[in-house]
Design goal:
The complex is a heterodimer of chains A (241) and B (358).
Chain A lengths: L4 E10 L2 E11 L4 E5 L6 H9 L6 E6 L2 E2 L5 H7 L1 E3 L12 H9 L6 H14 L15 H14 L4 E5 L7 H17 L3 E5 L3 H7 L2 E6 L2 E6 L1 H5 L2 H8 L5
Parallel strand pairs in A: 3-8, 3-9, 6-7, 7-8
Antiparallel strand pairs in A: 1-2, 1-4, 4-5, 9-10
Helix pairs in contact in A: 3-4, 3-5, 4-5
Chain B lengths: L15 H20 L3 H26 L8 H18 L3 H23 L5 H20 L1 H4 L5 E2 L6 E3 L2 E4 L5 H22 L2 H11 L1 H6 L4 H27 L1 E2 L1 H4 L2 H14 L6 H17 L2 H8 L8 H9 L4 H15 L3 H15 L1
Helix pairs in contact in B: 2-7, 2-8, 2-10, 2-12, 2-13, 3-4, 3-5, 3-10, 4-10, 7-10, 8-10, 12-13, 12-17, 13-16
The chains are: A alpha/beta (241), B mainly alpha (358).
Chain lengths: 241, 358
Amino acid sequence: MTPILEIKQVSKFFGGLAANSDVSFHMDEGMIMGLIGPNGAGKTTLFNCITGYYPPSKGDVLFKGQKLNGLQPDRVCKLGMVRTWQKVRPLTKLSVLDNVMVGALCRTNSLKVAREIAHEQLKVVRLDHKADFIAGGLPIGERKKLEVARALATKPELLLLDEVMGGLNPAESDEIIQLILDIKKAGAITQMVIEHDMKAIMRISDRIVVLNSGEKLAEGSPAEIVSNPEVVRAYLGDFHA
Amino acid sequence: MKPAISIIRSSAGASPVAIALGLAVLAGLFLFPQFVQSPYALHIMILIFLSVIMGEAWNVIGGYTGQYSVGHAAYFGAGAYTTMILLQYKQISPWYGALAGIAVSLVVSLIIGSICFRLRGPYFVLASIAVAEIMRLSAMNLKDLTNGAEGILITEIPHLKFGDTLITDFLTKVPFYYIGLVIAIVTILVTWLMQNSKLGYYFQAIREDQDAAHSLGISLSLFKSSALAISAVFTSLAGSFYAIYIGFIDPPTVLALDISVQIVLICIIGGIGTIWGPVVGALVLVPLSEALRSNMIAQGIFKIGLASEESGVGIFLKEHLSHAHALIYGILVVVVILFMPDGVLGWAKKLAAKKGKE
């Protein structure tokens, strides 16, 4: 079976700085891939390369076997891959419902259909009671949920979540974890998750890729990753290894 | 910070009272020339219609899509010049001339879009100004086509006939009144349709956050260009209408930077990104600028007895106020922008909301 996403020796240079160098891995349908690494490891840059915000300087990104190189983010979204933003980007002056409708309009031209999809997705993230509120007025926990609902409304096959739990309290994080697991259980959507909360990432991921200084340091199951001395060294320094 | 509880959607559509009121206003507008024959009053109304058309048109790209073009004189001038050149040198009726103007403006908008939409924020603003200035200088210097600084003067407007029956000979302002009114209504209708469609949602998504919009499957170049094209069509129509109505154009009156700024002001004063904002803006700005220019303010002051006409202050006001109309106009605009950042309409809505809470 072709993997849903294949990253082949992707490098991204900013001038002389290699934000990603020679990163390769692949994802199978239905799995949750965790992407971790210290600050500045190149996780978000890799997201940007995958979703079309930057063309990779070298290497290929294949989605369902199709090369994405140079495709704009909107085309990538139409193909079925969507990302959320680490720094949330609500359409502040629009209502919560309208925000999600913008996502839903990716697959339909009818506002009526889009409104139905939007209500459905707001129920999925348990934000339906705030549908008529202005997005700019939501607290951070609900903004993160809105990001997810809006992305889900585009009917993706691959969902890339960039630190959806960042800045949340434990109860809110738990809710998001449950949401990610529910999406997996529903079966239609493969997920890649960037996260700093180790407990959460170990709980949800089927496999984990560790980035450090732009390079892939390790890949494996959560159990393999926690016992990998190189990973421990990258996070905690030589002393602990 | 906006309060977290603000809700923007009202569940019901327009209330019956609002619909009845709207129809009454519409009927009043259509009957207006039957009761008011004063050419000056008609002239003011026509200027208001023009401002509404230009404001609504700019609102599509500036208000809804958030791309602040300060070069809309380019489309206004393109419409005006195309119509006038075809009429004066080729004897083509302005009805077709206006359509040709729209075609020219569409081409110009595509060119401007493909250049300027690579840029964001202030760079886009500057580029839009630059392109409009290029058009103005071209019109100044392409003397064979545009007659340069001398401008183009219409000698005669062809009569409008339906078959053999004469509908109007354009000798009074009344036919212009109706044409302006109809175009203004159509422009408002198109804006309303746009707002309640996928286009409206996509335009606003681009305004709120381009990167987020891009990630949600919105092609930035396609939808920004569409917004600019819609905007250009109606601005061009306004330009054609203005040219035929006034009967004379030259580069400073239809292609200058202050036309572009005027267009933006209509929206900013009224309320940006709303259907009725440009209407309110036009209703405020046109009478204001006319009142200042014709020194009605000084006369008003004399009438209510704040100063006598013979006193020193009175003489000063009479002599100088009308000359300073641009200055006063500017100051008033600054005051409105400072104290009503959401425009007159936004301010009125806030006031109404406050009253409703009490």
